[in-house]
Amino acid sequence: MSLSKTEEQLMEIIWKKGEIFMKEIIETYPDPKPATTTIATLLKRMQVKKFVGYQLYGNSRAYFPLIKKSDYFSKHVNGMIKDYFDNSALQFASFFATNTKLSQNELEELKKIVEAQIKKGES
Amino acid sequence: MSLSKTEEQLMEIIWKKGEIFMKEIIETYPDPKPATTTIATLLKRMQVKKFVGYQLYGNSRAYFPLIKKSDYFSKHVNGMIKDYFDNSALQFASFFATNTKLSQNELEELKKIVEAQIKKGES
DNA sequence: GAATTTATTCTACATTTGTAGAGTTAACTC
DNA sequence: GAGTTAACTCTACAAATGTAGAATAAATTC
Predict the structure, then answer these.
(1) Residue B97: which of A94, A104, A113 has the nearest Cβ?
(2) d(Cα A6, Cα B61) in Å, to the nearest integer?
(3) C-beta neighbour count of A59 within 10 angstroms
(4) CA of B11 vs C1' of C7, distance in Å?
């Protein structure tokens, strides 16, 4: 079971806050804000799909993610690599480095990250 | 308008071949193969969405992509960066480098790619 | 404590997606 | 040329998704 685009957006709001009340969720949306019932429905479905849970505080619910954003995107990206880049992470990385607008500075940063990652693996 | 997961899979088949006939499409799918009508429906929808076109050869159609795979994934990945990584490509790159299982060799390769990209920008 | 606000469930309905049968037509096969 | 195969259109239908009203219940406010 995976999330739809709209559910993913909501999920992102929940990830950002870590724990969030209905009222805050609605506030987060830009106008025109969705009806609370709409959000309630999404939250319900996401609970069924085991992506969010909630903690009762007195009588109100604080919703929280049941999956880490990094895990979610790992799966997501790895799925993409598998399905559309011949299962080659490198191919994807190459595509990414050449097709995304990274500034010189960002490229330098990225280089550092990669180097650090290499170091890490060497130990 | 964007493609659903299933349509994307079919799109990938079309990208791979560049130009492809119905029969070949079906052959590409693993068992249990979908009904030809299923594929026909998907193709029809993808034509409406302007993702594929076809060229008549005598009486049969050779389907081909109307969008380049690199363009499609650029949009895709950039959308992901925008929606879930604070619009920071670097943040995504960092996530990618640390969360995807790249071998030492692949990391070295990636480093080279990044370096090449840096060189390119310097000119 | 009556009136208002807020959150929740239940129900509903339109749209999109996944899948494919029925029917048609052209092509291919003896 | 009668029978088989292939591809296409049209129709259909179930499931998933996007959106929200009605009803209810609790909390907040005068």
Answers:
(1) A113
(2) 36
(3) 5
(4) 43
Dihedrals phi, psi of A55, to nearest 5 degrees:
-120, 130
CB contact under 8 A, B89 and A100: yes
For A11-63, the three-class secondary structure string (H helix, E strand, C coil) is HHHHHHHCCEEHHHHHHHCCCCCCCHHHHHHHHHHHHHCCCEEEEEECCEEEE
Whether A54 and A16 share a structural domain: yes
Q: Is the CB of B54 under 7 A from strand D?
A: yes
- Asked whether A57 and A48 are in contact (CB, 8 A), the reply is no
CA/C1' separation A66–C2 (Å): 41
* Domain hosting residue B26, numbered range: 5-65
Q: How far apart are CA A76 and CA A83, in angstroms?
A: 11
* Same domain? B97 vs B52: no
Residues 6 or more apart in contact with residue B14 via CB below 8 angstroms: B20, B25, B52, B63, B64, B65
Query: How close B107 comes to chain A (CA, Å)?
Result: 6
B29 & B45 share domain: yes
A17-74 tens-digit pLDDT: 999 999 999 999 998 999 999 999 999 999 999 999 999 998 899 999 999 999 999 9
Cα separation, A96 vs A112, whole angstroms: 16
pLDDT, tens digit (0-9, with 9 covering 90-100), for B20-51: 999 999 999 998 999 999 999 999 999 999 99
